[in-house]
Amino acid sequence: MNYDDETLMAYADGEVDEAKRAEISRALEQDPELARRVERHRALRAEVAGAFANVLSRPVPERLLEAAQRGPGASTGEAATRRGTVVPFPGRQSRPPATPWRLREWAAMAASLAIGAVISWKLFTPAPLESITARNGSLVASGPLASALDSQLASTQTGNEPVLIGLSFVTHDNRYCRSFALSAAATAGLACRVDGEWQIPVTAATTPGEGLRQATSPPAAVMELIQARIASDALDAAGEERARHSGWRLDAP
Amino acid sequence: MTSAPEEIGDQIVGILPRLRRFARSLSRNQHDADDLVQVVVERALRNRGQFRPGANVAAWMFGIMKNAWIDDRRGHTRRGEVPLPEDSGEHPAVSPDDANTSLWAVSEAMGKLPEEQRLAVALVLVEGLSYKEAAEVLEVPIGTLTSRLARGRAALAAELGDTP
Question: How much is the ipTM here?
């Protein structure tokens, strides 16, 4: 049985009906050339999706946040006076957090996603705000999160700490990064040491109450970014201790 | 649902990362992409009355971006601007952020696709929309979407050195 390229593409994308899927799956087992063609469709898809994946975790420029947040004022006739003024970010929210997205929206996003920290800030309870501050378009660890990232060792945690540290590692561009979970806020994320601060390129929702598991098995969005940045392997207990001793500086003596 | 327009601003903030990625896959660099996102956000807020409560905000905004991107490209053509020659050997528009070779290579290859194929590839392969969702955003029948996607993929595979 021969299949045209569009059919094999649709099969690779999960876009054929159940009967067709079963039929093609059987054909693939018999025909290695057919299987190679399907595999090429999958590989190209992964290559293209992968190339743009990191855009999701980059800090969103202030001007775009301002453009989006001009919205609520405009509907009550304040548009003219507010246009051009800087909307403070993150600022205390005067309105309750946004209604959680419908399941379908989440499902669509979960496919590829490393959600920007912005959405987490919008959707989660105020608790993480004490631990995460916005500065010059980046999110930076502060308060209890910053202290834990500075000093807490994964190897000595009991699982009851308010901040749990997961993996610590060195990135391709020679920086330290550490994954973390804020148990009470059901939030996990990645923090990377830049210019003496812990910048937070990604956060994501996590399941609360799992203790250490929250930190050791980060959500997919965080895991993707770790995989994209990690140079070789996670630090072991001794490596973590040395890194702390150096103040998380790789150029330290 | 009177609250829907109020929620739109929040939902837009939430999908900004995705809008930036979709725009990046249509543009040569992140700066141009962010200009496009800004136009789309402003246009969406101006036309928020047209948003049907309960509809998918991301899909609605992808549709606005498709139109804004096509308008912008037609505008450049009318003004007689020409894109950089493909083989100029210099890519001044590429920012340090793009020092990611696979991003650079895939972005260059996508830049050579005809508009309609680039949109199909961006929505399905980059944004992960189903064929049906992508066809709705592009306002074309699903068969048209499928054939544009297949042609776009074949051209990309050839450009990126994978045998189709």
Answer: 0.86
